[in-house]
Design brief:
With about 280 residues, the protein is an alpha+beta fold. The chain has 2 domains: about 140 residues, Fructose-1,6-Bisphosphatase, Chain A, domain 1, CATH 3.30.540; about 110 residues, D-Maltodextrin-Binding Protein, domain 2 (3-Layer(aba) Sandwich). The chain is about 30% helix and about 25% strand. Strands 3-4-5-6-7-8-9 form a 7-stranded mixed sheet, sandwiched between helices. Strands 11-10-12-14-13 form a 5-stranded mixed sheet, with helices on both faces. α1 packs antiparallel against α2 and α5 packs parallel to α6. The longest helix is centred in the N-terminal third of the chain and has 19 residues. The relative contact order is 0.14.
Length: about 280
């Protein structure tokens, strides 16, 4: 593969088909059950997982697949799809229209292409990274519904952040032991979209305490493509992933900010992450 534009039409069509079905399900009665890890799952999650996995396997038979609901061990393949068939299941099950479909593509364990579709919001956010050894013929880029997105040239004033948003989840607040922030907080309930609000210019930073690889693989590409600062809150780097490893229970605590000057503020907020064993 030397041009991600070659796969984009197929992924766009796949996301639309799955999104249309999920929107139909969303308008009906939604029955959720609790998984062993305490999170919710619906029949819609399982249907979308199977449909996306089968479609990708048929179109790209030589590629591996890693998904939230079924295939959780990273196969030893040059290329691997990472799928979250329904990011924001709790929102979906409770009738809150912030949920989506996340599809990332790894090359030897590192994301290089990402597509996140948010059907209720009618937003499709995607991008890719230029990887020299792949001889990819296009530059790194990110888009919202076909329109290029970029972070603004902005110099934040650390003493005047009250009107800027910082996105967190409830688990992050608990882990940080914080009840007071120098921002207005927004908790959206879909990890990939929480992070992507930075690429969209809605927030200036975000933290996620317990995202899994299918939550972040696609978003990581898009945020890197727009030039956001991504920081793992663990000692080791996230990528490349390890072949043959089961990622069912692996969390990737993450801090992302839009501009480097914000790191000095936000790193102080997330110190409790690093103090945990």
């Amino acid at each position: 593969m030397n041009n991600f534009l070659d796969i984009l039409p197929f992924i766009e069509d796949l996301a639309k088909k799955v999104g249309d079905r999920l929107l139909h399900d969303f308008e009906q009665a939604r029955v959720a059950v609790t998984k062993d890890d305490g999170s919710l799952v619906t029949n819609s999650d399982r249907w979308a997982d199977t449909y996306i996995k089968n479609a990708l396997a048929e179109k790209f038979p030589e590629f591996g697949i890693l998904t939230e609901e079924s295939s959780r061990v990273l196969p030893d393949c040059e290329w691997t799809w990472v799928i979250d068939p329904l990011d924001g299941t709790t929102n979906f099950a409770r009738g809150i229209p912030i949920w989506g479909i996340s599809i990332g593509l790894l090359h030897r364990g590192t994301p290089v292409f990402g597509y996140v579709s948010m059907p209720p919001l009618r937003q499709n956010i995607y991008g890719w990274l230029k990887v020299p050894e792949l001889q990819v013929q296009i530059e790194s880029a990110a888009f919202l519904d076909g329109v290029p997105i970029h972070l603004s040239d902005w110099s934040p004033d650390p003493s005047n952040l009250n009107n800027y948003f910082f996105s967190v989840c409830s688990r992050s607040l608990k882990k940080m032991g914080r009840s007071k922030f120098p921002f207005k907080l927004r908790i959206l309930g879909a990890a990939s979209y929480n992070l992507l609000t930075i690429a969209l210019g809605s927030t200036i930073g975000a933290v996620e305490a317990t995202p899994k690889i299918w939550d972040i693989a696609a978003a990581w590409v898009i945020l890197k493509a727009v030039g956001a600062v991504w920081m793992s809150l663990e000692a080791e780097d996230i990528f490349p992933l390890e072949f043959g490893k089961d990622y069912s229970d692996r969390n990737f605590p993450t801090l992302v900010v839009s501009h480097p000057p914000l790191l000095s503020i936000t790193e102080e907020l997330v110190k409790p992450f690093k103090s945990k064993p």
